[in-house]
Amino acid sequence: MCGIVGFVGKQEAAPILLDGLARLEYRGYDSAGIAVYSPQDGLRVVKAKGRLQNLAEKTNGGADVHGCIGIGHTRWATHGEPSDVNAHPQLSESGRFAVIHNGIIENYAEIKEFLQEQGVTFVSQTDTEVVAQLLDHYYKDDMLDAVVKVLHRIEGAYAFGIVCEDCPDRLIAARKDSPLIIGYGEDFNFLASDVTAVIKHTREVSYLDDGDIAVLTASGVAIYDSLLQRQDKARHQVDWEVSAAEKGGYEHFMAKEIMEQPEAFRKTISPRIQEGAVVLDGLCFDRETLERMDKLYIIACGSSYHVGMVAKYTLEKLLRKNVEVSLASEFRYCDPIVTERTLCIVISQSGETIDTLAALREAKRLGARVLSIVNVVGSTIARESDDVLYTWAGPEIAVATTKAYSTQLSVVYLIGLYFARILGTVNGGEYAAILTELQALPEKMEQVLAQKETIQYYASRYFNHESIFFIGRNVDYAVGMEGSLKLKEISYIHSEAYAAGELKHGTISLIEPGALVVALAGHTPLFEKLMSNVVEVKSRGADVLGVTVASRGAAMEKAVDGALIIPDTLPMLLPSLEVLPMQLFAYYVALMRGCDIDKPRNLAKSVTVE
Ligand code: M6R
After folding, report:
1. Distance CA 105, CA 185 (A)
2. pTM (global) more than 0.85
3. From the CB of 349, is ligand 1 less than 6 Å away?
4. Whose CB has fewer CB within 10 Å in the chain, the N or C terminal residue?
5. CA 54 to centroid of ligand 1, rounded, Å
6. Catalytic positions, please?
7. Max intra-chain CA distance, the chain
8. Is the CB of 354 inside a 6 Å radius of any atom of ligand 1?
9. Domain range 452-592, its CATH number among 3.60.21.10, 1.10.10.10, 1.20.1250.20, 3.40.50.10490
């Protein structure tokens, strides 16, 4: 939520900030602003409600705002409606400090009251303005000293970028629970929410830790811990190309990312399969350790949670161990039964989702070992886990996740096979069969994606529906949950996913003539059972769009109004194929409804506030 970027160097800052914000816009997009300092104009702030384009127009692409140091922000509103005045940067009353912020200051109301009693006038409804005003309050003649005092006084989560008119050669950055990186260049330096904002200019980055404070000038960066001790922060090289975070000829990032899935899947599994076995470098689990684990606890949010749902079926089947799946937002508050004999598997694309991070910390506090599946290298979840397995999906920009979901699934399969071999819970023949089929999946994914025109046709038939139901059993149900989320997230159609066996316990009362039911029936052991549910909803007038595998295609086609047939695979691996038509269906429906596919209303890519 919210993207922040800061630049100090020898070039004009405003166009660089706007370009950085354009690359961060997926983090929040209800308003944006920049503050740039120049000796002639002082600290100049320009803000605009709505998409970044409005700010670009207001500043003539940045050309009308001069100065070589500045900060920029693209907002996902928490405190105060989206408006020019609530957009960041927020200024202190004296105009000396400008602040950009990602996070929430939890004790802002109390501090605001305190400052108001001192005569300070507030102009916005944001929690961030409190920080700018508090900086004024503590400022004598030392910017860093004022920042440290503010950090001691506030509670909550933050990534800050701060500029002060009295110290026009430096930016200060600080973080707690919200991501922040430093990008290093020759004669310039950056702060940013993530590397996408700086990759065009530099590949050399550091990831700030909680409590870190960084002072950036054009010639260098000094990083301190919360006790103001100098830190020697490791520098990393980003190894992906700028083009990976661009649309590359597609109309939307989501379309590009859907089509990238076979390759991303391949990239994630291939290096980890050697000589007929799964090799997970860096993971040290021996048989004794795994046997001691009495439970696996999977923790995630949103689509990553849906991967967790699939993982429960997969891992229980392969490992014969009890697997629980919890929404990260519930985990902390449900007094979870987690001990040092629990292995927690945390799943997150961004590696920054605040609920998932908080759950990870709670699991560790309770003594669990944490293995995370993460896409963003160097993210907080990756760094705080005992073990991490990266998904090599590359940058995912569309708010609706697709390739991260697919690559997370691929890592789940790898973990299952890896542990099963150590524990001896699958025999050699089964192991080899699963591995062979796993390696065949990318090609089968390509075959499914090649049916995009058929899926587009079904989308054109159903895009005007106001309510769509997804039903399935076992992993089909888990895929239905994901299909339903994709659809509601980007097309704003009301949609629900049900375990098909639950229909008769209430939901079937919603089925009336014309209702659309997407029936997922790829899991062949339960095909007949699911088809009984299809008959039941059809008898009540529903239109049914059925999805199944080739070996059941003819039976499905006879029973439904429209059918999507995907290649056969092992039931365990089915979600990797079956999710693809769900993603494409949601995409085309949203396209036909004229929705803003990559930036759906009210959402942001990375949920860094609770
Ligand atoms: O970055 P994460 O995987 O932790 O994000 C979790 C969810 O916010 C995310 O999957 C969300 O549900 C997606 N927008 C769904 O497409």
Report:
1. 31
2. yes
3. yes
4. C
5. 27
6. 2, 605
7. 79
8. no
9. 3.40.50.10490
- Nearest 5 degrees, angle CA 227-CA 387-CA 158? 35
The per-residue DSSP string of 469-528 comes to: EEEESTHHHHHHHHHHHHHHHHH--EEEEEEGGGGGGTGGGG--TT-EEEEE---GGGHH
Taking the CA of residue 402 as reference, the ligand 1 atom at the shortest distance is 16
Question: If one looks up domain 253-448 in CATH, what number appears?
Answer: 3.40.50.10490
pLDDT at 240: 82
Q: How far apart are CA 24 and CA 19, in angstroms?
A: 9
Q: Comparing C-alpha atoms, which of 115, 125, 67, 72 is closest to residue 93? A: 115
Which pLDDT value is given to residue 301?
98
Q: Where are the domains of the chain?
A: 3-238, 253-448, 452-592
For residue 376, the ligand 1 atom closest to its alpha carbon is: 1
Report the alpha-carbon distance of residue 140 to residue 119 in Å, rounded: 18
Cα-to-centroid distance, 402 and ligand 1 (Å): 10
DSSP assignment letter at 259:
H
397 lines ligand 1 (CB under 6 A): no
pLDDT in tens, 86-124: 999 999 999 999 999 999 999 999 999 999 999 999 999
Task: Give the residue ranges of the chain where pLDDT is below 50.
Answer: none
> Which pLDDT does position 458 carry in this prediction?
97
pLDDT at 306 (0 to 100): 98
Could you tell me the distance, in angstroms and rounded to a whole number, from the CA of residue 21 to the centre of ligand 1?
21
pLDDT at 389: 97
- For residue 300, the CA-to-ligand 1 centroid distance in Å is 9
Contact 491, 589 (CB under 8 A): yes
Specify whether the backbone of 277 is left (phi greater than 0), alpha (psi in -120 to 50) or beta: beta
Place of tokens 């229980």: 316
Q: Is 37 helix (H, G, I), strand (E, B) or coil?
A: strand
Q: Are 585 and 487 in contact (CB under 8 A)?
A: yes
Amino acid 246: pLDDT: 86
Q: Indicate the residue type of 344.
A: C
- Please give the pLDDT value at position 47: 97
Whether the CB-CB separation of 342 and 368 falls below 8 Å is answered with yes
Going from the Cα of 331 to the center of ligand 1, the distance in angstroms, rounded, reads 16
CA distances from 384 to 16, 361, 378, 394, 413 (A): 32, 8, 10, 21, 23
DSSP state of 177: B
Residues 6+ apart with CB under 8 A from 548: 520, 521, 522, 527, 555, 556, 563, 564, 565, 566
User: Which residue is closest in CA terms to ligand 1's atom 12?
Assistant: 302
Q: Is the Cβ atom of 583 under 6 angstroms away from ligand 1?
A: no
| Chain centroid to CA 114 | 37
- Alpha-carbon distance 357 to 175, whole Å? 15
Q: Is the distance from the beta carbon of residue 303 to the nearest atom of ligand 1 less than 6 Å?
A: yes
Class of domain 3-238: alpha beta
Half-sphere exposure of 150 (CA within 13 A, CB side): 34
Tell me whether domains 253-448 and 452-592 share a fold.
yes
CA separation for the pair 11, 33 (Å, rounded): 19
pLDDT given at position 259: 98
pLDDT at 282: 83
Partnered with residue 42 across adjacent β-strands are: 38
